[in-house]
Structures are given as structure tokens and as C-alpha cells.
Amino acid sequence: MFPKGFFANVDAVLMETIHIVGAGMAGLSCAIQCAKEGKSVTLYEASPQAGGRCRSFMDESLGCIIDNGSHMLMSSNIATKTYLEEIGSIALVTETIPAKFPFLNPKTGTLWKIEPGFPYPTLWLMNPGRRVPETNPISYLKGIRLSKAKADETVKDVIGKDDPLYETFWQPICRATLNTDADDASALLLWGVVKSFFLQGEKSCRPINFERGLSAALVDPALKYLRTRNADIRYQDRIRDLTWKDNLLTGVRSLEGLHQFDKNDALVLAIPPDICSGIWPNIVSPSKTSPIINVHFRVNEPISLPGGLPFLGLIGTNSQWIFSRAEILSVTISAASKFVDSPSWELARDLWSEILPILGHDLARLPPWRVIKERRATISQTPENLQKRPGARTNLKNLFIAGDWTDTGLPATIEGSIQSGFRAARLALEYTSSNS
Ligand SMILES: Cc1cc2nc3c(=O)[nH]c(=O)nc-3n(C[C@H](O)[C@H](O)[C@H](O)COP(=O)(O)OP(=O)(O)OC[C@H]3O[C@@H](n4cnc5c(N)ncnc54)[C@H](O)[C@@H]3O)c2cc1C
């Protein structure tokens, strides 16, 4: 559960409104906490649907609902679990027990699994069947050096590109958790990942999948929760700028006109960094982003992947992960700048021929496909960019910032955005309560 007492000093008082801009994970989690405390909530969302970078939609060409991109959680993502429990959808995600990550090198045909954390945090490394084949358990301990990294050092600086585990272990972890190549990724941020997964024991390392899709678990139940608590959710209401006097925000302006605030109201901006600094230029924000590409293939029947789980990591290919969910087989490329300008048909064709030999099915013809290029999937998690992450407070007493890109100490992930949403909710609730 989320730490006890996190919201303890906050009185539930009706009347004041907490305005939240952006209905992604940060905005929704913020709205949930404010509504739970009995506040009046108004949520402004620019697009026609909620979920932001984490959503499902009906794809007419494939004839089914797909996610904008395959997402995975970790069992150590405590704020996300709290959120799922609060909105009643924890049963809609699937935790793999015991923790296990299958990998395949299609060029050599070698299949292995990383099975971390059981019975003791690092003892699993002693079992050759639970680490990368033909590697020495001692080599993994080099990861401890990440803890001593300087703020400006990358994973490459600390681990070294010639390390035997660089391409088979550190690189896939960097791309999957930081959406940044190990050459550029912040060593300190990766240390946070290593510490919270691998050093905490098996219970913290379990992968969690969205077998029924992202919106079914993360978005739709949240909207239902908010509606039953009378939250005012305004779609296609893009906030353009803010009005303020002295150190107090006085309103927000959208195409619909000016929404004037009461002096006890608070506002949380839960929008991406470039849009946020356009609306509120007084903050410094990370400017570099990193793309993720997902190619969804519509197959005739569910396909079992080597390794026996609904996901498989690939080494030595452009395809990095395959996810199998019902009749959809999805291939993910993170840190995908090299591929993002390739034509979609070329990506679909090339990735399909790359994974075809792995599937062991008679599927030679390219099935119907959909390529989704999320060009600004996350901020690029380099040392320079991370130094520009702002905190939640601003120099206006009733204006707060949330989002996966803010300074949470975590990678830009669902967990980071939900923690930032909870933090902004606590600050907004404190402000409104102290003024009532
Ligand atoms: C393809 C892909 C794969 C990913 N995989 C993973 C994964 O496996 N695990 C993981 O934990 N994370 C993953 N992530 C990251 C995760 O999706 C994000 O960290 C998270 O969704 C960010 O949420 P957010 O609320 O901070 O921002 P957003 O989702 O960007 O939400 C911002 C919202 O604000 C709205 N908005 C913008 N401007 C305005 C305005 N002016 N007025 C009103 N509304 C506005 C937007 O429409 C949007 O709905 C992935 C991301 C992508 C794209």
C-alpha cells in the first residue's frame, strides 16, 4: 500500500475545487485522491478521451481494441497498485509468479530466463539457469558501481561497452525501463531501478501485464470512480494559458473562455513538459524526448511464445520485445529514434520477417498490421535531461505540477506519473484545506 499517513493531514472539506489539466495517469491519479478526500474536482482534457500516453482504442483496420503500446508494470510499483486497488481494477492485471523474464537470441537460437530475487536478493545469480548463458555471476556485481555513479555519468561510462553483459543484460534493462540506450542513459537512474527490483527480493521483481488492455484496467474504472463522485470531466477542453495575480493563480483560459477560480481553488498541471512550459513558462523542463514504436499484428489465434509467458525479450534483433495477447501479437522497439522515420509498411514487413522464425507457426503471409509511433513516448533519460526535472511546487501558492517527467526520482513510467499525481494531490489538498 502507499505509505500510511501520506494523506493524513488533509481534512476533507467540500466547496473548494481542485482543477486538474490533463487526464493521463498523473492527472487521473491526482483526481482520484482529491475526489476520495471529498473535494470538488474539475478535469480538463484536450483530447476526446482520457489515458494520454497509456490508452486503448478501437482499431477499425484490425477490427479490435488495441493499446497505443505494450506496457508492463513491476510488482514494486506500489503507488500504481494503490491506484488500481482504489479504483477496483487490481484483478484486471496479471502478475507473473515467481518473477521471470524469458529472453531469446533468434540468431543463435539460445533461449534463457532471468529469474531474479528468490530465495535471497542476489543468490539467484549462483544458478546458471537463472542468468544469461555463459556468464559469470561475479560480472553482475559490477552493477553495484552504479550506486556510486556521478550525476553526469551514463550507464556506458560506469559499466563499459565491452562488458560481457552490456548487450545481453544492461542494454535491454535500460531500453525497457528508461526508454534510453545504455550509451546515453543516466547511471544513477538505472541504479534506482536495480535497487528497487533486483535487490529487494522476488516479490519486487514480478512483471505485471495488462491482459485486458490498458484502458480496461487504468482508465475506464478511474473515470467511473470520478463520475460517481461527481467530478466534472471536460473533454476537448484544451487549456491555453493561465491568469494570476501576485502569487495566486486566478483562472485558466481555454477555447471555451476563461474559467475563473475562487481564491481557495488549486490547479494541477498534469501535461507533457513542452506543453507545460508553453502554458507556464516559469519552469525549466526536460526538452529531449525518446520515441517508442509498437507494431501490432492481427493473427488468427493466440500464439504461444518461446519461454511460455505472454512476453519475450529479444536480443540481437531490431525487435526488442514481443507481447502476445489474444489475437494480437505486438512488437516493441524502445529508444527508437533510429527507426521512427522509416515508413510504417517497411517496419511492419521487416519486423514480421524478423519474428516469423520464432513463432513456429505456419504464418508466412504478413497479417493485418498497425504501426504506432509514439514520437514523444517519454523524456530521454539522460543525465543532462534529468537535471531539468522540476518539483511539484511553483512560485504560485495554488499551482502544482505533475507528470512522469517531473522530479520523482523514478524513471518516466506509469509508477512515476502516479506518484507525481499523488504528490500533487497532497499539495493541492493541503492548500485548499489550509485556506478553508
Ligand atoms: C508506447 C509506450 C510504451 C510505454 N511503456 C511503458 C511501460 O511498459 N511501463 C511503464 O510504466 N510506462 C510505460 N510508458 C510510459 C507511460 O505511458 C507514461 O509514463 C505515462 O502514461 C505518462 O502519463 P502522464 O499523465 O504523466 O502524461 P500523459 O499520458 O502525456 O498525459 C497528459 C494528458 O494531458 C493532455 N493534455 C495535453 N495538453 C493539454 C492541455 N493544454 N489541456 C488539457 N489537456 C492537455 C493530453 O491529451 C494527455 O491526456 C510507455 C509509454 C509509451 C508511449
Structural notes for this entry:
The chain has helices at 25-36, 78-87, 137-140, 155-159, 166-178, 187-197, 214-228, 273-279, 344-359, 383-386, 414-434, and strands spanning 17-21, 40-44, 56-59, 64-67, 72-74, 94-95, 101-105, 110-114, 207-209, 232-234, 239-245, 248-254, 257-260, 266-269, 289-298, 311-314, 321-325, 328-333, 369-379, 399-401. It has 436 residues and is an alpha/beta fold. It folds into three domains: 17-56 and 214-287 and 385-434, FAD/NAD(P)-binding domain (3-Layer(bba) Sandwich); 112-205, no CATH class; 289-379, Polyamine Oxidase, Chain A, domain 2, CATH 3.90.660. A hairpin with a 6-residue loop joins strand 16 and strand 17 (321-325). The longest helix has 21 residues, at 414-434. The chain is globular and about 65 Å long. Flavin-adenine dinucleotide (FAD) binds next to helix 1, strand 5, strand 15, strand 19 and helix 11.
Descriptors:
436 residues; alpha/beta; FAD/NAD(P)-binding domain; Polyamine Oxidase, Chain A, domain 2; 3 domains; seven-stranded mixed sheet; 20 strands; 27% helix; binds flavin-adenine dinucleotide
